[in-house]
Amino acid sequence: MPTAKSASNRGNNSSTRKATHKKCTPEQRNQMISEAAYFYAERRGFYGGDPMDDWLTAEAEIDSIIQMPMHH
C-alpha cells in the first residue's frame, strides 16, 4: 500500500495542496479525499487493495494537509 508521502509527491496533489491552505468546506474536503483515494487505487492498477483502506489513508493525508499552518 502506498504511503501518504508517496501520494503527496504526485503532481495532481500539488493543486489540491494549494487549495487546502484556505479554509475548505466539508464538500471540498470530501472531494479531495475522494480524488486522493482514487489515485491510490489507480496507482495499483485498480487491482487488489481495499477501497475503504484507500479512503481512510486518503482521509488522513488530506486532514494532515488541511491542518498545516499557512505560510505567507
Quick overview of this protein structure:
The chain has 72 residues and is mainly alpha-helical. It has helices at residues 4-8, 11-19, 26-43, 51-66. The protein is 67% helix and 0% strand.
How does this structure look, described?
The protein has 72 residues and is mainly alpha-helical. The protein contains four helices and no strands. The chain has one domain. The relative contact order is 0.21. Residues 1-20 have low confidence and may be disordered.
Please describe the structure with a list of short key phrases separated by commas or semicolons.
72 residues, mainly alpha, 4 helices, single chain
- Beta-strand share of residues: under 5%
Radius of gyration using CA atoms only: 12 Å
Estimate nothing, just give the exact number of structural domains: 1
Number of strands: 0
Distance N terminus to C terminus? 34 Å
- In percent, how helical is the residue content? 55-70%
Number of helices in the DSSP assignment: 4
If you average the pLDDT, what whole number results? Answer: 79
Quaternary structure of the protein: single chain
General shape: elongated
Structural class: mainly alpha
Order of helices and strands: HHHH
The major β-sheet equals: none
- Flag low-confidence runs: 1-20
SSE blueprint and pairings:
Layout: H1 4-8, H2 11-19, H3 26-43, H4 51-66
Helix pairs in contact: 3-4
